[in-house]
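It is worth pausing here to work through a concrete case rather than discussing structure prediction in the abstract. The textbook approach is simple: state the sequence, then state the predicted structure, then interpret. We follow exactly that order.
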Amino acid sequence: MVNVSLVWSSPKPERTIAVAMRRCYSTKAIEDIETELEQKGVEYWKFLLTKCLQDKSLDVFEHFTISLLVEGVGEVELSRLICRFPYIHATRLNEIDWLFSMNARTLVELWRDREGKPFAESVVAELDRKHVSPLFNELVFGDRIHAC
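Step two, the predicted structure:
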């Protein structure tokens, strides 16, 4: 059985993604974009995240990164995962424990892949338990995350 524990996450991931998206289409200074996002509030962030998903503009999700302790995964299983998703960085801690780093785009791609989804479900369940990125999790993964 694989156990996933969150080690670190980008602070304010939804806000970070919203800033990245706005910066792609604006010449405003980052400070001005941040002020605008704060004034418009969470519903605007939700709008931007939804637009990213609709447009399949997943590159802005790369600004949300996580590090995880993954316990109980063998090298063969890990090799298959990394071959399919090369943007997962894994550092071996011992025979069956690893430190993983990835971004939210990779997590979304894992979720959408039949072979990657069980691992993605474990990661999303851990993010949900730790109350990391609740808006992002709800929009991208839906209510199913609470059942994991």
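Step three, interpretation. The chain has one domain: 3-147. The longest strand covers residues 3-9.
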